[in-house]
Amino acid sequence: MxxxxxxxxxxxxGNKMLKAINLPIPTLLERYQPEKASYVSGxxxxxAAPGGTxxxxxxHNLKEAxxxxxxxxxxxxxxxxxxxxxxxxxxxxxxxxxxxxxxTKFKALVFDATGVNNIEELRAxxxxxxxxxxxxxxxxxxxxxxxxxxxxxxxxxxxxxxxEGFTRSVGKELKKGATSQLVYVDEGAETQLASPLRFFLSAxxxxxxxxxxxxxxxxxxxxxxxxxxxxxxQKALVTGASRGxxxxxxxxxxxxxxxxxxxxxxAMADELKQVASRIxxxxxxxxxxxxxxxxxxxxxxxxxxxxxIVVHNAGVTRDKTLGNMPDKxxxxxxxxxxxxxxxxxxxxxxxxxxxxxxxxxxxxxxxGIAGNMGQTNYGTSKAAVIGMIExxxxxxxxxxxxxxxxxxxxxxxxxxAAMPFAIREAGRRMNSLNQGGQPVDVAETIAFFASPxxxxxxxxxxxxxxxxxxxx
Length: 472
Ligand SMILES: NC(=O)c1ccc[n+]([C@@H]2O[C@H](COP(=O)([O-])OP(=O)(O)OC[C@H]3O[C@@H](n4cnc5c(N)ncnc54)[C@H](O)[C@@H]3O)[C@@H](O)[C@H]2O)c1
Prior knowledge:
single chain; Rossmann fold; 2 domains; globular
């Protein structure tokens, strides 16, 4: 569905008019274009707190972005360390001296805060960001890399936890489609930053802001990895894929090289076949709540030689306040949104039809994080999806598999087009980017989780909500 307000706000006359009365201008967000050579194009300013261990990985990955130009902020305590890391990575850095009248614009500010050991050292954030935060280009990125707090001594844990408040607050101050994120990396897992750097610095994360991702060590080796076709050779299943977000997920996974099976209820067979023919995929017409649903899925998975990616996208809303809600609304919502995914996971694992390195991705919702009036059933089901990620994480890690979820906010689909006008407009505007997201934004985040390059990322929930005020 088109966003009329955004179209008007981006016209010459409309833009002037809305600015004059102080209304927000939702920037047209840049989205991923496969033909671009780099995941980030433009000037990238890299900084670090003294003793940071992620700077080398940041610079090494920037070296593989020919359209990016790396700079470092002159005069910071850790500037010599950043320059040394650049020399080792083979990156030419220029020294940037921030001056107010200077018109330089940055496409990304990346700060290695892994060396921050205590509250005093958090001051390094101010030192780096204060002189340059007003010098961001359109759709720029702020990215902070920290050390996983739970794995630090108490003083460091306290300070590292503070980074979350920093990146979330910055996200609320940024304008013109810029976003802010935090990645916590375990000591020794710095090579695993390749995938989150490429996701969070690129247009693939257009509608993701103020999120926190935790990265652990894994056996993924980025050397020689094909970042243009990251899912080459992977077999994927996407449920609820005949339209909306599910169709976008199927398309993005196929674009990235996966062979995709699209599943939906028999009533959606025509739409499902159209999606499959667009992406050269297979179809499975099935109600996932059917008694033998998991068996049918597992049988097909076995015939395909096992699945590498399972995306539990099928979902429904049946809204009513609790006192007015018939039991069938409750049963149906819980049954489709979480009971069926749980049964499917169990069956695939029991039958050994998930391949080593497989990735399961669930779809939660901001309603599952913050709650929503009229959605006790939906909110319960979507919070339970988060429970499903938490409860399976350890078992799957032991088998070399990952499980994560996305929690979309307001996404432009038939589901949200059916909302009453006032609620729809509130949903669209009440976020830091002042607009709804597109199905492709959810799909890109799922492809990020599903990539073999994200093997060190499990048990994470990433909201795709433009930093929605609901549940913020
Ligand atoms: N649109 C949003 O703003 C938004 C926000 C948060 C979360 N989500 C979640 O994202 C997912 C996709 O949402 P959407 O907006 O594309 O919805 P949608 O209604 O457009 O698509 C959902 C698909 O799931 C299928 N489906 C439903 N029950 C099924 C069953 N029993 N078996 C097989 N398929 C079934 C439907 O036929 C449909 O094709 C859902 O899980 C939804 O809860 C959406």
